[in-house]
Write a structure and sequence with these properties.
The structure is a homodimer. Chain A is an alpha/beta fold and about 210 residues long. Chain A has two domains: about 80 residues, Arc Repressor Mutant, subunit A (Orthogonal Bundle), CATH 1.10.10.10; about 120 residues, NAD(P)-binding Rossmann-like Domain (Rossmann fold, 3-Layer(aba) Sandwich). In chain A, the strands form two sheets. In chain A, strands 5-6-4-3-7-8-9 form a seven-stranded mixed sheet. Chain A has a two-stranded antiparallel ribbon with strand order 1-2. In chain A, a hairpin with a 2-residue loop joins strand 5 and strand 6. The relative contact order of chain A is 0.10. Chains A and B meet through helix 1, helix 5 and helix 8 of A and helix 1, helix 5 and helix 9 of B.
């Protein structure tokens, strides 16, 4: 075990690798394995055993020399550390094509994200339900969020209004923005921001083909 | 203009930043602007003007000192370079919650990705159409792809079969895999691989909140 306390801040690249390990050890569990070493994980995933051991030192688990980690315990600890076992309340702004698609993806719930409402200004979606999730007019957000207390806001509006809607979400109490637009929004320092640009990934695929 | 020829291989981080510039200059165009300098872009996006000028040197455009880039031309050149103006043929494996959501997101088409078919082994989705896209049994993929000639395969299967399905896609002629599973698949060197792990991004949000 390294000197990292489980409470020291884990760097983002390490944090992003943890779900890979989780997904692999879950497969091992399914195959009936009970122990796994970082060397074994390294063989399957393009990350060195040293890096894996270092990454895992941020979570509260001890590996044993020559035996490795107990798989059941590792899954438990990783899911807990990654926040997948607690339900987090979210809202979504922009019920267009991608927004509606995310509302209908109930898979996110299995990872701890529960979207409680969609917001839009388009009368053709307001009042509708998608996958049981109601869509309201954006004007109602501030009042509705006093009750909902959503901390996470998913941003799937057209890129040209992304900044303005982000500002509006923050005014209404949102503390973390998951930005799916290709627009590079700016947020105050205390606001968590994650950009998931599907189009940037597409561009890489197209360019490399 | 730098020494980079437009055909020299652009590094992935630069490639991923180009859609940010595109989305910002599109906004400027909408606002009636005609010219933009890298300094102006830098002010809005957290990237230095030098870096922006360097990134843009990979695409076939010339900026003029003190005037900057012609916006209309920059949009044209960026969209072309990023591959958003040509339609690319894709198929999708795993018509579960996320897979079905991606099939219904017609927004991808605007960025040059046309999904022609979904594949699954679950009889409850086989034979269905989602957003006009037919879903076939996975067994039919190799034969169907002889006609379709899809180069891009979107992977939204359960993580424990991600590797096996990826291998199968490659056998059927897929040359680029867009992996949405949290599983770290391995592919031969000539295959393009992009990982878009929604769950890893969620983990970062949860951890930072």
């Amino acid at each position: 075990m390294s000197d990292n306390s489980p409470h020291s801040k884990i760097p983002e690249p390490a944090l992003r690798r943890l779900p890979w390990y989780l997904s692999y050890v879950k497969l091992l569990k399914k195959q009936g394995h009970q122990q796994v070493s970082s060397t074994q994980i390294a063989k399957k995933i393009n990350v060195s055993a040293t890096q894996i051991a270092k990454d895992l030192s941020y979570v509260n688990i001890n590996g044993k020399t020559r035996v490795g980690y107990n798989i059941e315990q590792l899954i438990e600890v990783l899911e807990d550390f990654l926040g997948f076992k607690r339900m987090h309340t979210a809202v979504l702004f922009g019920v267009g094509s991608l927004g509606a698609a995310l509302l209908s993806d109930s898979g996110l719930e299995q990872y701890g994200l529960k979207i409680h409402a969609g917001f839009d200004v388009d009368s053709s979606v307001i009042g509708q339900k998608i996958n049981e999730i109601p869509v309201f007019h954006s004007d109602e957000f501030v009042i509705r969020n006093k009750k909902l207390k959503a901390q996470i806001g998913i941003l799937t509006v057209p890129p040209d209004i992304a900044q303005e809607v982000a500002d509006f979400m923050i005014e209404g109490g949102i503390q973390a923005i998951w930005n799916f637009t290709p627009f590079r929004i700016r947020v105050p320092e205390h606001i968590v921001l994650q950009n998931t640009s599907l189009y940037a990934h597409l561009a890489v695929i197209f360019n490399r083909l």
